[in-house]
Design a protein that fits this description.
By secondary structure, this protein is mainly β. The chain is built from no helices and 20 strands. The strands form five sheets. The chain has a seven-stranded antiparallel sheet, with no helix packed on it. A seven-stranded antiparallel sheet has the order 2-3-4-9-5-7-12, with no helix packed on it. A two-stranded antiparallel ribbon has the order 6-8.
């Protein structure tokens, strides 16, 4: 990302007894820097001390300028049209990315981002470590001894590799980072129109942000049953909490999921 998000705590929104359901229209947006257009909504964790996920919203036509940060950052485009230039120019810089696109920005890598004219952009940013800006030297580059360059990745939505979750489940998955069988992974899940998961749970917490479609997430106590969630909505489902996920009839739903433990399914009879 081409900006540093504030790490000050603020209200996340209404929490259910077992988790958090936050419709897009209720996201706690805030301006982190007076006079700057960027807004953030903290979802989980604390970027000032460790792993965290935030949403960032910028207006159409916004440009970040060249930046670099101390932690690797995983970014998923939720809405709008985006361009991500590696090295502040060149690679992937002229390719317009659509919702569902993903990029990995290594620690110390200079990059530049922009939101195309026409509509605002929202991105989900996950960093596994504390995030701080690397001060640039004259010319806009970070000091050489701060660079920790890995291998950047830019994956347009059109190039996602979708695979079936299992032969008897109609969900399709697109891996972004990490491994489902180990935990600390990010993926996109495609739920077909009209899909109903049935009651189930997962070993670990999951953090979900809707990219497209209309999603209904029902907690074990019934919370969320009457709430249709649109793109940008956020759900935190604690591990081992029974819940049901549905995709409203009409169009498929694409959901970003991060889980801190393995990506399994626990049915009620095996709880």
């Amino acid at each position: 990302m081409g900006l540093l998000m504030s790490v000050a705590p603020y209200a996340l929104g209404a929490a259910t007894p077992s988790g958090t359901i936050l419709p897009a229209q209720d996201l706690p947006w805030r301006h982190d820097t007076a006079g700057h257009p960027e807004q953030t909504a903290r979802l989980w964790g604390d970027r000032g001390s460790g792993a965290a996920g935030v949403l960032v919203k910028v207006p159409g036509g916004w440009r970040s300028g060249a930046r670099a940060y101390t932690s690797v950052q995983h970014v998923v485009l939720i809405s709008g049209r985006w361009a991500h230039a590696i090295g502040g120019h060149g690679a992937a810089g002229n390719e317009v990315l659509l919702p569902g696109s993903y990029w990995l920005e290594p620690a110390g890598e200079v990059h530049e981002d922009r939101c195309e004219q026409g509509s605002e952009c929202i991105v989900l940013v996950y960093a596994p470590d504390r995030v701080a800006a690397i001060a640039p030297v004259p010319g806009g580059q970070p000091a050489a001894n701060t660079r920790q360059v890995g291998v950047p990745v830019v994956l347009p939505a059109s190039e996602l590799k979708w695979v079936s979750q299992s032969p008897d489940v109609p969900l399709r998955l697109a891996a972004l980072w990490g491994r489902r069988d180990e935990g600390h992974f990010g993926e996109l899940v495609r739920m077909p129109s009209g899909f109903d998961s049935g009651r189930h749970a997962h070993t670990g917490n999951y953090y979900g942000v809707l990219v497209s479609g209309t999603w209904v997430h029902v907690e074990e106590n019934g919370a969320g049953a009457d709430q249709e969630l649109g793109p940008g909505s956020y759900v935190m489902q604690p591990g081992r909490g029974m819940h049901t996920d549905r995709c409203k009839q009409g169009t498929d739903c694409i959901l970003f999921i991060y889980q801190d433990e393995k990506g399994d399914v626990i049915w009620p009879e095996n709880r």
